[in-house]
Amino acid sequence: MKQKRFVSRVVSLIFLMSVLSMGNLFAQKAPKESPASDFKYDLNEAGDGIVIQAYLGKGGDVVIPSKIEGYPVVGLKLEILYNFDISPITSLIFPDTVTFIEFAEGASGTLTNNKLKKLVLPKNLKIIGDELFGGAVNLTELVLPENLEEIGVGAFTEIGCDTKTGIKSIVFPKKLKKIGGLAFYVGKNIQSITIPESVEYIGGQAFGLCENLVSVTMPKKQIEYGGDAFIDCPKLTLKERKKIKDTGYTGGF
Fold first, then answer.
1. Rounded distance between C-alpha atoms, residue 102 and residue 123, angstroms
2. Which Pfam families did the record assign (predicted)?
3. Same domain, 143 and 235
4. How many domains does the chain have?
5. Which residues form the domain of 228?
6. Whether the Cβ atoms of residue 169 and residue 189 lie closer than 8 Å to each other
7. 3-class SS of residue 212
8. pTM of the full predicted structure?
9. Which residue, among 220, 224, 197, has the nearest Cα to 206 in the 3D structure?
10. What is the enclosing helix (H) or strand (E) of 39?
11. What rounded mean pLDDT belongs to the chain?
């Protein structure tokens, strides 16, 4: 009996140590925030949050900090691109404190380059601006904001098109209302998309040249289209095309 109790205690101890080890393993996987010195920043107009104006680092895995000098990082308003588009950034992760990403007056461009493989956007971001992440040709992982409402023109053009492991499936957030023209143009690896009932507008060539697109989940209602949103998607079967046409689409495939 004593031997059985001893064995039972040993097994319990081993199990407990395994659980603790797993906990430590997961804790270690939490991404380390990039130092404040990697960014140019200032207080917002209200004086209660940080707005990042430029990236000054050397690339690699970039994790934008949730706080700088004790203030929450609330957004990006880029004066000029600096290194966001030319540094070899391989992953870009935003904290959920960020609610806007935009360019200052007179500035424009894209936040990505051909090295970026992972992009995690903040859950409270409502608008992804025009061409903001276009040209991320090696992107293999994309996390869209939970509260996203609008995707701008050309926002993800050529997404993952230069790699066989590029984005294959996109499930759009349930609050999304608008997908701009050319948004996912030349998304060569995209095989399936799920568009929620909330979507009201899809722009011209939004999914144009998504040559491997084979499956679509569409809203059960009429949608406004800005043109041939699904042009040059040759692998869509008649059944899948009917799903799209049932939403009011009259363009080509």
1. 16
2. LRR_5
3. yes
4. 2
5. 126-253
6. no
7. coil
8. 0.84
9. 224
10. strand 39-43
11. 87
